Amino acid sequence: FRLALIQLHVSPVKSGNLQRACELVREASAQGANVVALPECFNSPYGTQYFKEYAEKIPGESTQKLSEVAKECSIYLIGGRSIPEEDGGKLYNTCTVFGPDGAMLAKHRKVHLFDINIPGKIQFKESETLSPGNSFSMFDTPYCKVGLGICYDMRFAEMAQVYGQKGCQLLIYPGAFNLTTGPAHWELLQRGRAVDNQVYVATVSPARDEKASYVAWGHSTVVNPWGEVIAKAGAEETVIYTDIDLKKLAEIRQQLPILSQKRGDLYAVEVKK
């Protein structure tokens, strides 16, 4: 099947971001994409100062637009971090998924909040405004099962391993790494998650905006189960495409049967919820 990653240029104008996102989704569909993904924080600037202002309920304005365009194009649409979600007085970093009939198939709340301090480079604390999600998020397509994470979730290998154990063959991480962590770890983490679990890994970032308070790295990427980068964007707004070859995945797993060779008698990753 064909996967499209939309590396959107995000502005402070929510309505403009939604309109542009839908335009690019239609373009991706016209190019034959079956599964389309938007970046983290596609409808608002990224930053703790913006989350409350741009927050919506789910369902709400942004998710309604995503539902409509998924149905119009008859695709599977991963809505990045479609919105800062407001629920019960709390805010979440939330990714929604819609099927070809417009129905919502999954809602992933970012599990690991981005609280970091790299002296002289970047300090950021999502937990000042956001609450963490507490569940794994997967959805089925006619092609394969897909696992979801958001940005910082990609750093936690156990989460990807659980998805692999539950039968996911593609992991999608909408993310917004920055100019410090991006060049250091963005591709490295994707390749690691792909090789460790013998899955495809796709990451979709906002386009880089040097004038923004938080500057995203860009470079949306797809990595195959052998650890090879098979599609990669630059920093600008663009749509990248790649064909996900599940036959190749099966061949790699047959040649290197690491999933069946793990020593369950010595170690295991435990799911608690």
CATH architectural grouping: 4-Layer Sandwich
Structural class comes to alpha/beta
- Main sheet overview: 7 strands, mixed
Poorly predicted regions are: none
Please, how many helices? 7
Enzyme class: hydrolase
EC number: 3.5.1.3
Protein name: omega-amidase
InterPro entries: C-N_Hydrolase (IPR003010), C-N_Hydrolase_sf (IPR036526), Nit1/2_C-N_Hydrolase (IPR045254)
Structure in words:
- By secondary structure, this protein is of the alpha/beta class.
- It has a single domain, classed as 4-Layer Sandwich (Nitrilase/N-carbamoyl-D-aminoacid amidohydrolase), CATH 3.60.110.10.
- 28% of the residues lie in helices and 27% in strands.
- It is built from 7 helices and 15 strands.
- The protein has helices at residues 14-30, 48-54, 61-73, 157-165, 181-197, 246-255, 258-261; strands at residues 2-7, 35-37, 76-78, 83-87, 90-98, 104-109, 115-118, 122-125, 137-140, 145-148, 168-174, 200-204, 221-223, 229-232, 238-243.
- Strands 1, 2, 3, 4, 5, 6 and 15 form a 7-stranded mixed sheet that branches. Strands 9-10-11-12-13-14 form a 6-stranded mixed sheet, covered by helices on one side.
- The longest helix has 17 residues, at 14-30.
- It is globular.
Gist of the model:
With 273 residues, the chain is an alpha/beta fold. It is built from seven helices and 15 strands.
Task: Jot down its keywords.
single chain; 273 residues; alpha/beta; Nitrilase/N-carbamoyl-D-aminoacid amidohydrolase; 7-stranded mixed beta sheet; 6-stranded mixed beta sheet; C-N_Hydrolase; EC 3.5.1.3; C-N_Hydrolase_sf
